[in-house]
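debug: dumping io for the single-chain case to check the tokenizer round-trip. Nothing else runs in this session.
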Amino acid sequence: MCEKQNHCPAAQRALCEKGEPAPRVNSDSITAHLEKLGVTQARWSWDPASKTPTFLAPIPTAPANNLAQTLRIRVRTAANANDHYWTGKATGSVPLMIPDNRDV
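debug: decoded output
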């Protein structure tokens, strides 16, 4: 499927085939990563069963997505109305759907 759907170079395919185990995640590793991202005042709770930190107040979208992708976890935070850095399902947006209408 991958070979038919994208044009990744051979070096990238080798990395994907090798695979990397997900990092071990706990509240200490989340705190350390948040500090690297400059998010030090945020209050959050951790559910290890679902691997989900839930922030009690909105945090910027960029660090929330970085945290989720780097640690391979789900991150729950309310949308920040003033933060338009990224859009998508992480911020509650719905995908843009363009109908296949050749008459338009």
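debug: round-trip ok. Strands lie at 44-47, 52-55.
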